[in-house]
Write a structure and sequence with these properties.
- By secondary structure, the protein is an alpha+beta fold.
- Helix content is about 40%, strand content about 15%.
- The chain has one domain.
- Strand 2 and strand 3 form a beta hairpin.
- The model has no long low-confidence stretch (mean pLDDT about 85).
């Protein structure tokens, strides 16, 4: 085999590798339940230490726990700091685009955030609970059926 032929083979192998490489970075995760996943992202955003330091949570609960976070989040003071709903009339499209650039998630329309237990009278919902310092978010398409999305993460104290 000549050197020229060997070099061509290495070039073709390199090209093949480069063509396959992007496939490793594609997201093959399920695309269903996007609204529920967005709702859970809102709770993760609100419970992040960076956001809690900017909120009224720190003044209300200086050594806040995950249980106190839930109490605060669903209180009038916490609810006033919720991100806006998608498609709401609060902002025009240009303002909404600017807010999205900051990284703030929007609450999907037709989705409700509920503390502790599913509300059988509401439809699509994300239920948030706390157990031993861990926040658990369960997404329900129908509250009379098991959750279709479950995520949990540790609540990081900021005080």
């Amino acid at each position: 085999m000549s050197i020229e032929r060997t070099n061509k083979m290495y070039v073709w192998i390199a090209i093949g590798f480069l063509l396959v490489l992007p496939l490793f970075y594609l997201d093959f995760s399920p695309k269903e339940n996007i609204e529920l996943r967005k709702g859970i992202a809102v709770v993760r955003y609100m419970s992040a230490p960076r956001q809690l330091q900017r909120s009224s949570f720190l003044s209300a609960y200086p050594n806040g726990t995950s249980e106190q976070f839930l109490s605060w989040m669903f209180s009038p003071m916490g609810a006033a700091e919720w991100p806006p709903y998608e498609g709401g009339l609060e902002f025009d499209p240009e303002e909404e685009a600017m807010i999205r650039k900051t990284g703030m998630p929007f609450i999907p329309e037709n989705l409700v955030l509920i503390p502790q237990e599913p509300d059988l009278e509401k439809g699509r919902q994300v239920v948030i609970r706390s157990e031993r310092g861990v926040l658990i978010a369960k997404g329900y398409e129908n509250p009379e059926e098991p959750p279709v999305v479950v995520k949990q993460w540790p609540f990081q104290k900021i005080g």
